[in-house]
Here is the input.
Amino acid sequence: MTSLPDTLTQAAALLANGEISPVELVQAFLERIQQIDPRLNSFITLAPELALQQAHQAEMEMRAGKSRGPLHGIPIALKDLFETAGVRTTAGSSFFVAFTPQADAAALEKLRAAGAVLLGKLNMHEIALGVTNENPHFGVTCNPWDLRCIPGGSSGGSG
Here is the structure.
């Protein structure tokens, strides 16, 4: 794959047409994250093993003709406020640095049922109580268009 799709719609079309597999798409996103996230600090927790496992599952389902819809095989990342079974959820706070939920938030349950692939958890303003995303525990998230600026908050990693 030479470049990542620009939109979710483009990614879904590539997957639906078999031009790319979910595994290839996830690998491309993980490579891109590895290249640029050291400068942006968007992720608190990256879950590459989980993402690849879910991508392989999506690929097997697609090959068997089972489609879950337009999000099937699409890589996503969530604000670290959403509880994710088996993946730590810090809410951007050192108080929750070792918290690993046993169940998913309702929103993630729906995304997983639709076949979305979780890449990891995104940086945020501590406990979602602020607008700068200048997190004292996990660092400042930078705006990808101008590293001297912030993307805002409390969902700065998403920005």
